[in-house]
Amino acid sequence: MEFFFEVLIGGLLAGVMYSLVAIGFVLIYKASGVFNFAQGAMVLFAALTFVSLLERGVPFVLAFLVTLAAMVALALLIERAVLRPLVNRSPITLFMATLGLSYMLEGFAQALWGAQVHGLDLGIGDEPLEIGGLLLSQFDLFAAGTAAVLVAVLSLLFNKTRIGLSLRAVADDPLAALALGIRLQRIWAVVWAVAGFVGLVAGLLWGARLGVQFSLSLVVLKALPVLIIGGFTSIGGAIAGGLIVGASEKLAEVYLGPFVGGGIENWFPYVLALLFLLVRPAGLFGERAIERV
Amino acid sequence: MLYREAGQFSSRYADDRRVFRLRQDRLGLALLLVFAFAVVPWLGNDYWFGAILIPFLVLSLAGLGLNLLTGYAGQLSLGSAAFMAVGAFAAYNFELRVPGLPLPASLLLGGLVAALVALLFGLPSLRIKGFYLIVSTLAAQFFVPWALTRFGWFSNYDASGVISAPKLEIFGIDFGTPAGRYLLTLGVVTALFWLGHNLVRSELGRNWMAVRDMDTAAAVIGIPLLKTKLLAFAISGFFLGVAGSLWAFAYLGTVEPHGFDLNRSFQVLFIVIIGGLGSILGNFLGAAFMVLFPLLLSNLAGLLPGGLIDAGQLENLQKIVFGALIVVFLIKEPEGLARLWQRLRERARIWPLRH
Question: InterPro entries attached here (chain B) (predicted)?
Answer without folding.
Answer: ABC_transp_permease, LivM-like
